[in-house]
Amino acid sequence: MTNKQDHNHAKIAAARDFISANLPIVPVPSIPEIRLHKAGPQSGLWRLAEQDQEFGSPYWAHHWGGGLVLARYLLDRPDAVAGRRVLDLGAGSGIVGIAAAKAGAAEVIAADVDPYAIAATGLNAAINGMTVLPVLTDLTTGEPPATDIICVGDLFYEAALAERVTSFLDPCLARGIKVLIGDPWRAYLPQSRLRLLAEYAVPDFGTTTSSRPSGVFAFETQNAPAKPRR
Length: 230
Ligand SMILES: C[S@@+](CC[C@H](N)C(=O)[O-])C[C@H]1O[C@@H](n2cnc3c(N)ncnc32)[C@H](O)[C@@H]1O
Known about the structure:
Layout: H1 3-22, E1 25-28, E2 31-37, H2 45-51, H3 65-76, E3 85-89, H4 95-102, E4 107-112, H5 115-127, E5 133-136, E6 149-153, H6 159-174, E7 178-183, E8 194-202, E9 212-219
Parallel strand pairs: 3-4, 3-6, 4-5, 6-7
Antiparallel strand pairs: 1-2, 7-9, 8-9
This protein binds S-adenosylmethionine.
S-adenosylmethionine is lined by residues 59-60, 64, 66-67, 89-93, 95-96, 111-114, 117, 138, 140, 153-155, 157, 161.
GO molecular function: protein-lysine N-methyltransferase activity
Pfam families: PrmA
GO biological process, one term: methylation
């Protein structure tokens, strides 16, 4: 094992201990089938930031509209993933992968670049009695993975990330992988490439009381520009 792998293993183990001790397990708004560790006023996430210079935004400790709407969709329409291999890209808390597993996916891999998300996903899958394999890696830099369906919950919140994810998804589509996206219509959502499958009103980050319309989309191949007629 390399030093980097050792370092990541130790960080994931410490993150697991912190999350178990400090983030209460709570029901998820709009998804009563799933409970997750979620940051609360007493969680003291600032302590992680103080201890760990690499500590980033704790996306994994919160609910996001994109993940909520996609999880709701998978639970309502299990046929979308039942019996298929699913990759949850940018898993965060793992909510989408957990919903896919509950819907009967044959295998669920949950990828994230944040070791804290990997720890949270493992714990959250376990408390929901589901098997999800969390992997710490940036798949967007590589070849299309061995999967049938890629689920993308709320990854279009920054221009550079949206561009990176879209560039990764195109060759995946070309390999015949289906792509489902959940998103509350954020600024960098590639709307021209999407077909709306369903819409639900779900809470977004920072609120549990108000909801906003959020969509589940199929990501589709870019239409070639029409050839001029002769
Ligand atoms: C807004 S959160 C959404 C989390 C979850 N999908 C949901 O909807 O609740 C975005 C997540 O994407 C992860 N992420 C960002 N860039 C990534 C990349 N290149 N590959 C994998 N995950 C990434 C972040 O670490 C974060 O956990």
